[in-house]
Write a structure and sequence with these properties.
elongated; Rossmann fold; Dehydrogenase E1 component subunit alpha/beta; 23 helices; 22 strands; alpha/beta; 3 domains
């Protein structure tokens, strides 16, 4: 791609020209101050310079209204400073100080300052547009009039997330501006070595939105293009793609000498940097005198110096900060102890299957709270209400704005749900099969689960991800990944075994201020989970196991489908004179270890079971905890019953051998009883 971009830009008005200069100066001098601190040893941190890109941030941010929202990236110093970020909090955050915006826990990759319209920052290349869509969706549904600008580099356009996001934004006419800062380098790879696209903005037409390419070294050109795109978005006409082109004058990261660049070209670009060029332009056009610009620079440099010096002098966070803000309540509790268990309400009941119980819960919740929206593939009534009819009738009742059929793009679904939660909604996102968790795991693990921690406890991601573990569908549609989810700090994991539990647990998830993964079993759709469900509304608090059967000799701890296998095995064991207690965990994070330990202390024997792979599975954690806490109490070694270390096969005979059932549980019970 040519490094020259000629544009005919009329002189800016004096007031706007000086406003743009102020922002460029702020970005320029802040970048310079950070690099000076790193060079001298005054500070140590990861940093991604923005030298040469000042006009992009200045022009784009000035084009936005104060209430408009920004989603940016780790190379976001220019964007957040131009948007008005709190300087002391920002510098303290990137330096890892306790006075930082997020108390030093997020760093430059996680700047969050809602007071100044900085809605989110991500260190995952290309992930921001997915979240921006959700923030824009919330703004659209809530009629706030806000526009969301998502800033990303040219390298991000090689990632599928960006394309998914552009397609969804155009499909739903979301108020989004896709702002690509093309600095000619995808990290250390030149533009021509990773794409044959002459102009990245040409791709916009493929998604049904306008695209434009402007000189990213001219703040007025950037401003005008973004202002036009923002006005289009605000009017309800949908998204636009703006590509601003300007050469990056520093390495990808601080300390990168850019040996990969053409040194003559780099020297020529550095000899005429955008900030100095714009400064000359203002003087030449008589908009400002040199002394006036010097005064602006001095004022800004002094403000930056005061804020940066305060950040350097600030203390690091105390170590007790480490465990705060993983979950709501300012803590990181994985296990729950000392609870009074809630029971089901008395009164009338109705016989419901798992599908009907979940449908009823969603229906009632949506009627009571218009912030609850549903997102997923084929979940609307025109598409049949979902593959298993869980959401049938809901879009007809609440409208397609609140029950949205999405493209087949799991990352987009979860990203939009995260953004919607940041924007004040309570989304329920459906992943048709749990196998697809892997497709969306970046958004789940790197964003949804980390919102509370990376915001320093100021914001959570109140969202529910519904998914289902299949059967008889082969290796890519029958997997259970609960162990993977449990290993992700900040994500709550729930797996009901009955319709009554599903209703109460889902209601708890819908009210929770943290992201919840709600796992359903396809086996239980077909009768296994059916039973009496109270007609009154009720909540089963997360982290409360349930004793499904009292016993004295052996404790079986399990969840999901295996609860029914355990009850069957317990019945057969009783005929052989063995009394089995069945503990249904119901919630895997938080985990009710207190109930488990109380039961095993009584029976002195434990079998822990799940249908997912046994190696490194949840049963290993429970077995290790019990063995540690009750080493002197156990009468026999802990037994584990779990799935084989294989994919789940399609053939029914092989699947039956892969997944355990009542027979395997009974064998384990006999071994220790």
């Amino acid at each position: 791609m040519s490094t020259e971009l000629h544009t005919e830009i009329p002189s800016a008005s004096g007031e706007r020209a000086l406003a743009l200069y102020r922002l460029m100066s702020k970005v320029h001098h802040a970048d310079k101050r950070v690099r000076k601190a790193l060079s001298s040893g005054e500070a140590a941190m990861s940093y991604w310079p923005v030298d040469g890109q000042e006009a992009m941030s200045a022009g784009a941010m000035l084009a936005l209204a104060d209430g408009d929202q920004l989603v940016t990236t780790y190379r976001g110093l220019g964007d957040v400073l131009a948007k008005g970020v709190d300087l002391r909090g920002y510098f303290a955050e990137i330096l890892g100080r306790r006075d930082g915006l997020s108390r030093g826990k997020a760093g430059a990759m996680g700047i969050y300052d809602p007071a100044h319209g900085i809605a989110w920052t991500t260190g995952i290349v290309g992930a921001g547009p997915l979240i921006a869509n959700g923030i824009a969706l919330a703004a659209d549904l809530r009629k706030t009039g806000q526009v969301v600008l998502v800033s990303f580099g040219d390298g991000a356009t090689s990632i599928g997330y960006v394309h998914e996001a552009m397609n969804m934004a155009a499909l739903w006419s979301l108020p989004v501006v896709f702002f690509c800062q093309n600095n000619f380098w995808a990290e250390c790879t030149s533009y021509g070595r990773y794409t044959r696209t002459e102009r990245l903005s040409d791709r916009a037409a493929g998604y049904g939105m306008p695209g434009t390419t402007v000189d990213g070294s001219d703040p007025q050109a950037v401003h005008d293009a973004v202002a036009q795109a923002a006005e289009r978005a605000r009017s309800g006409a949908g998204p636009s793609f703006v590509e601003a082109v300007a050469y990056r004058l520093q390495g990808h990261y601080f300390g990168d000498a850019m040996a990969y660049a053409d040194q003559d070209e780099l020297a020529a670009m550095r000899a005429d940097p955008p900030f100095a060029r714009y400064r000359r332009r203002l003087v030449d056009e008589g908009i400002a005198a040199v002394a006036d610009l010097d005064a602006i620079d001095a004022e800004i440099a002094a403000e930056l110096e005061e804020a940066f010096a305060a950040a350097v002098a600030a203390a690091p966070p105390e170590t007790d900060e480490l465990r705060r803000d993983v979950f709501c309540g300012n803590g990181s509790e994985i296990a729950v102890t000392g609870q009074v268990h809630a029971g089901l309400p008395g009164g009338d009941t109705e016989e419901l299957g798992l599908v009907q119980a979940i449908h009823r819960t969603l229906d009632r919740a949506m009627a009571a709270d218009d912030s609850i929206i549903l997102l997923g593939e084929d979940i609307g009534d025109p598409s049949g209400g979902g593959m298993f009819k869980v959401t049938a009738g809901l879009s007809a009742k609440y409208g397609e704005d609140r029950v949205r059929d999405t493209p087949i793009a799991e990352s987009s679904i979860i990203g939009a749900a995260i953004g919607a939660s940041l924007g004040g909604l309570r989304p329920v996102a459906e992943l048709m099969f749990m196998d697809f968790l892997g497709v969306a795991m970046d958004q789940i693990a790197n964003h949804a689960a980390k919102v509370r921690y990376m915001s320093g406890g100021r914001k959570g991601a109140p969202m529910v991800i519904r998914t289902m573990v299949g059967m008889a569908a082969g290796p890519q549609h029958s997997q259970a990944f609960e162990a993977w989810a449990m290993h992700t700090p900040g994500l709550k994991v729930v797996w009901p075994s009955t319709a009554a539990d599903a209703a109460g647990l889902l209601k708890a998830c819908l009210a929770d201020n943290d992201p919840c993964l709600f796992i359903e079993s396809m086996k239980l759709y077909y009768g296994g989970g059916k039973g009496p469900v109270p007609t009154a509304d009720y909540v089963i608090p997360l982290g409360q196991a349930d004793i499904k059967r009292q016993g004295a000799d052996v404790t079986v701890v399990t969840y999901g489908v295996m609860v029914h296998a355990a009850l069957e095995a317990a019945k057969e064991a009783q005929e052989q004179g063995i009394s089995v207690e069945v503990v249904d965990l119901r919630t895997l994070v938080p985990l009710d270890l207190a109930t488990v330990l109380t039961s095993v202390r009584k029976t002195t024997r434990l079998v822990v079971a799940h249908e997912s792979v046994g190696f490194c599975g949840p049963g290993a954690e429970i077995a290790a905890t019990v063995a540690t806490e009750l080493f002197g109490v156990l009468s026999a070694p802990v037994q584990r019953v779990a799935g084989t270390y294989t994919p789940v096969p399609r053939a029914a005979t092989l699947e039956a051998a892969c997944r355990p059932g009542a027979a395997q549980l009974l064998d384990a019970i006999r071994r220790i009883a």
